[in-house]
UniProtKB/TrEMBL annotation:
Reactions accelerated catalytically: (6R)-5,10-methenyltetrahydrofolate + H2O = (6R)-10-formyltetrahydrofolate + H(+); (6R)-5,10-methylene-5,6,7,8-tetrahydrofolate + NADP(+) = (6R)-5,10-methenyltetrahydrofolate + NADPH
Name the UniProt record assigns to this protein: Bifunctional protein FolD
Species this protein is from: [Ruminococcus] torques ATCC 27756
Keywords: Amino-acid biosynthesis, Histidine biosynthesis, Hydrolase, Methionine biosynthesis, Multifunctional enzyme, NADP, One-carbon metabolism, Oxidoreductase, Purine biosynthesis
GO CC terms of this entry: cytosol
Top-level taxonomy: Bacteria, Bacillati, Bacillota, Clostridia, Lachnospirales
Family label: Belongs to the tetrahydrofolate dehydrogenase/cyclohydrolase family.
InterPro entries noted in UniProt: Aminoacid_DH-like_N_sf, NAD(P)-bd_dom_sf, THF_DH/CycHdrlase, THF_DH/CycHdrlase_cat_dom, THF_DH/CycHdrlase_CS, THF_DH/CycHdrlase_NAD-bd_dom
Positions of the Tetrahydrofolate dehydrogenase/cyclohydrolase catalytic domain: 5-119
Annotated Pfam families: THF_DHG_CYH, THF_DHG_CYH_C
Length: 284
């Protein structure tokens, strides 16, 4: 049986560490506040936003909620973001995606001040990541690195294959693995002979967006598999991009869905929120 990488436990460990850190900062009179904006009431977004607010309460970070109607104009949202950029009480701004079609997501992301970009989506944050400068890291890929490190899985020198090239997961994942001295391949929907490329991986990271797509034919014996997908199968059960039953005889370690990568995204968001106030006690 493979080792099951427990994202829920690791995420709790991180949140507990952050809670201790925040407690000390609070005693020194330093507080963090995350502004969370949701436009419309997509049920999945509501669940994510509520989980983020719950995590803030757990860690000891203040959160402010902005719930805007589905028909909100782009300008109204941009004005709100600008107001929060200028608000000294707000340390982090999160605009839950996706946004309704009348709003240009890129424009909104670019309007968030890079100093408050706790999602790590602003082009300045992305640039900092690629050149190895300090900045906010995209939460899901940063969570994957923590899962590996805290499970004692070495990254340096490993062949890592990422399937998926999104701005939120695949691309920042490649940058972070490079930073850890891995050899990185990014495969995607146009990749030829995906099976043989995936089979090179010591660590395979799957963010392809297709339920149970990865079977054991894609996996080298003993590989570590990180499943970033989240879907519902025919029985309405949650499942990932990896057919975990099929691959369990070949992998050495795997993240479950749910309870793998998912909880890590929020833990790393909390880390980014704490990052906005870190070190302030020395300066106070
Ligand atoms: N929608 C799905 N995932 C995310 C995320 O990590 N951040 C934001 N802002 N929206 C999302």
């Amino acid at each position: 049986m493979p080792y099951i990488i427990d994202g829920k436990a690791i995420s709790k460990q991180i949140k507990d560490e952050l809670r201790d850190e925040v407690e000390k900062l609070t005693e020194a009179g330093i507080n963090a506040c995350l502004a969370v904006i949701q436009v419309g009431n997509d049920p999945a977004s509501t669940v994510y936003v509520n989980n983020k607010k719950k995590a803030c309460a757990y860690v000891g970070i203040n959160s402010r909620s902005y719930e805007l109607p589905e028909d909100t104009s782009e300008q109204t949202l941009l004005d709100l973001v600008q107001k929060l950029n200028e608000d000294p009480e707000v340390n982090g701004i999160l605009v839950q995606l996706p946004l309704p079609k009348q709003i240009d997501e890129d424009k909104v992301i670019r309007t968030i001040s890079p100093d408050k970009d706790v999602d790590g989506f602003h082009p300045v944050s992305v640039g900092r990541l690629w050149i190895g400068e300090k900045g906010f890291l995209s939460c899901t890929p940063a969570g994957v690195i923590q899962l590996l490190k805290r499970s004692g899985i070495e990254i340096e020198g490993k062949e890592c294959v990422i399937i998926g090239r999104s701005n939120i997961v695949g691309k920042p994942m490649a940058a972070l693995l490079l930073r850890e001295n891995a050899t990185v391949t990014v495969a995607h929907s146009k990749t030829k002979d995906l099976k043989s490329i995936a089979k090179r991986a010591d660590i395979l990271i799957v963010a392809i967006g297709k339920a149970k797509f990865i079977t054991k034919d894609y996996i080298k014996e003993g590989a570590v598999v990180i499943d970033v997908g989240m879907h519902r199968d025919e029985q309405n059960h949650l499942c990932g991009d990896v057919d975990c039953e099929d691959v369990s005889s070949v992998v050495s370690a795997i993240t479950p869905v749910p309870g793998g990568v998912g909880p890590m995204t929020i833990a790393m968001l909390m880390n980014n929120c704490v990052e906005t106030i870190r070190g302030r006690e020395e300066r106070a």
